[in-house]
């Protein structure tokens, strides 16, 4: 299995049929729509390299290109890579998302049921019925109803969603309440708001919002981009970001972040954008 580009569903041997005439491959396939069946599935661009490139949350759709390997595309973000086949299944289309920081999925409608599955905010579930405080999912497990929101309902304030993750440990490539990086935080906030959002900060800088004049007074939910980093304004003086300095999701004064990031050698601010 060869390393792949994060935005092209092809590894030179097999490619998605949509790339016929655009890439060289030995075979072309339609693929099969699956969903993540574990709390968080790791996605790697190079299966021989242990580096984590991105993660995909429980219930999110994944286009699995072929059954004999894990070349896949996260259909939420468009991110391409290898996902272990045992992390995927054929679950039904989701109806609800986890709208609190984290929750659990139980094998019975009882909070004392042992060994529940932990789920991050942003995880997707297919609910078929409700039983008191619980929602029964399509696979016969039970989620806490108060922790769910229909996927048709979206949040209006990205910063409020991001702030629910204050203190979450920093994890390179992380996309969940168990560990998250700068672009993962923005992606989770955008997904809760019903906004399409790619997986990496350079893609987000390219696709999200409209440019502001450098030095313009920030507004809540503005985005700041550096080379390899992104942060979200919570006011005209403070931002929130998942970062390796605090090793967590943290607030920081905007002026402090600008000075610190440039002083540590990561360069000046590249873009200020407004959604």
Structure description:
By secondary structure, the protein is of the alpha+beta class. It has four helices and 25 strands. The strands form seven sheets. It has a six-stranded antiparallel β-sheet, sandwiched between helices. A hairpin with a 4-residue loop joins β15 and β16. It is globular, with a radius of gyration of 19 Å.
Give the arrangement of secondary structure elements.
Elements (H helix, E strand, L loop, with lengths): L13 E3 L10 E3 L2 E5 L3 E4 L10 E4 L3 E4 L6 E4 L5 E3 L5 E2 L6 E3 L3 E5 L10 E4 L3 E2 L1 E5 L2 E4 L4 E3 L3 E3 L7 H6 L11 E2 L2 E2 L1 H11 L8 H7 L2 E2 L11 E4 L2 E5 L4 E6 L4 E6 H13 L4 E4 L1
Biggest beta-sheet profile: 6 strands, antiparallel
Shape: globular
Order of the strands making up the biggest sheet: 20-25-21-22-23-24
* Count of beta strands: 25
Please state the CA-atom Rg, rounded to the nearest Å.
19 Å
- β-strand percent reads 25-35%
Number of distinct helices: 4
The percentage helix is 10-25%
Query: Uncertain regions: pLDDT < 50 for 5+ in a row?
Result: none
Oligomeric assembly: single chain
Topology as H/E string?
Answer: EEEEEEEEEEEEEEEEEHEEHHEEEEEHE
Q: How would you state the average pLDDT, rounded?
A: 96
Class inferred from helices and paired strands: alpha+beta
What is the CA-CA span between the terminal residues? 39 Å
Main attributes of the structure:
275 residues, alpha+beta, 6-stranded antiparallel β-sheet, 13% helix
Produce a short descriptive summary.
This protein has 275 residues and is of the alpha+beta class. It contains four helices and 25 strands. Strands 20-25-21-22-23-24 form a six-stranded antiparallel beta sheet, sandwiched between helices. Strands 8-7-6-3-9 form a five-stranded antiparallel beta sheet, with no helix packed on it.
